[in-house]
């Protein structure tokens, strides 16, 4: 397999970043507790991608101290594995530098706080490190080894429906192949930014797809680089369009971490944050992100009004049957935990213009401001756009409009017939918040204060 220069560049960069991240990781180590392996380049070269798969077990009885888990643990009295509880299986992805993933314990603990389950962590750092193309060759073998273990669990009375795989990046496709081996009878697979390189054009047999489990959900955050851009589940949440995440620098010069893996890792951080339960992240079905941003999709009527949510609720909260397949869902987020944004639909109606123009709309809540620019054409008088505001519609104190475009010729006043704000998807249908009939002058910003009280729900 040949290496494109860009891939090599990204790998070197990833390796460099990983070394920085590992450097600051807390190094404390409790010898009593099991941990994931790590490997070094020297070791790797000696053993030539020797595939070793180990398992760690975390339960509510040992949330802070993982136990090593093997098939023997099923008959071992001192193992905390409880056969009558559901099982979550976490599978990490590609490790550029052979380091162990640092977030495993936090994800396991977040899961355990919500549900009384067995959490099994698949440790395949040995097979997942360094050359990405060799790692991709390993992933099916890892899946086969996991399926041997799942077979043992099944023999002891675990039900396949009660197994939920959570795969990160390449780990999502490992989970998908385990699902293929069990002919889709596994309960659930969640893919957190499933890997894109070498998988986008792969056959469904080779990648995660809806036939791999009874329910497959995926979160996409970096589909233009490390993530996959096509839907792979029953429902696929595309966060901020699925490519670039807020707060991750778009400029490659701003921060190396931001450029390389911030977008990709956002899926995991958002998932952990929703488990913490501070707010609900709801996806809105739409054909494309462009349509979504234009305000053409503002409800979940196709789901009988209940929008699918990110997190552990069964079938993402979908009540309709049959569950759809490859349903794209869109939502906007904020740049930091708990990531929930309020979707505000902005509707503007102007009197016909003689020249094209531009207005900048700002929504203000104390020191928070959300801006949106609208390009106005002579042929249209109605405009719609979707904004992500950090707080609810009823907490917006002020709206400002600025007549911005047209630096090189005199732009006259823009007559606004109405500017309206509404929040979606709304629980109850509220009247939009509107201001009617005013002019916006060039160099003279217009603003209007709202006097609102937030109702109690
Ligand atoms: C990896 O970890 C497992 C169990 O945690 C241990 O048995 C094995 O020896 C480790 N491998 C290496 C090379 O350290
Ligand atoms: C794992 O990493 C630590 C420090 O990062 C190092 O001391 C240790 O030798 C590594 N273990 C293996 C098996 O490479
Ligand atoms: C049972 O599990 C404990 C703790 O994990 C371990 O120390 C012990 O060696 C295991 N015994 C057998 C027979 O596997
Ligand atoms: C295993 O889980 C079941 C169901 O929650 C519970 O009733 C039982 O006490 C647990 N067993 C052990 C050994 O904790
Ligand atoms: C989730 O909650 C735990 C404990 O309250 C906290 O340590 C962790 O940082 C939170 N994680 C996220 C992603 O919000």
TrEMBL record:
One of its GO terms (molecular function) is metal ion binding. It holds the Pfam family Lipase. Ca(2+) binds at residues 207, 209, 212. The active site is at residues 169, 193, 264. It catalyses: 1-(9Z-octadecenoyl)-sn-glycero-3-phospho-L-serine + H2O = sn-glycero-3-phospho-L-serine + (9Z)-octadecenoate + H(+); 1,2-di-(9Z)-octadecenoyl-sn-glycero-3-phospho-L-serine + H2O = 2-(9Z-octadecenoyl)-sn-glycero-3-phospho-L-serine + (9Z)-octadecenoate + H(+); 1-hexadecanoyl-2-(5Z,8Z,11Z,14Z-eicosatetraenoyl)-sn-glycero-3-phospho-L-serine + H2O = 2-(5Z,8Z,11Z,14Z)-eicosatetraenoyl-sn-glycero-3-phospho-L-serine + hexadecanoate + H(+). It comes from the Eukaryota. GO terms for cellular component: extracellular space. Keywords: Calcium, Disulfide bond, Glycoprotein, Hydrolase, Lipid degradation, Lipid metabolism, Metal-binding, Secreted, Signal. GO terms for biological process: lipid catabolic process. Residues 1-23 form the signal peptide. Residues 40-339 form the Lipase domain. The keyword Hydrolase applies. It is found in: Secreted. Coiled coil: none annotated. Belongs to the AB hydrolase superfamily. Lipase family. This is Phospholipase A1 member A. It comes from Monopterus albus.
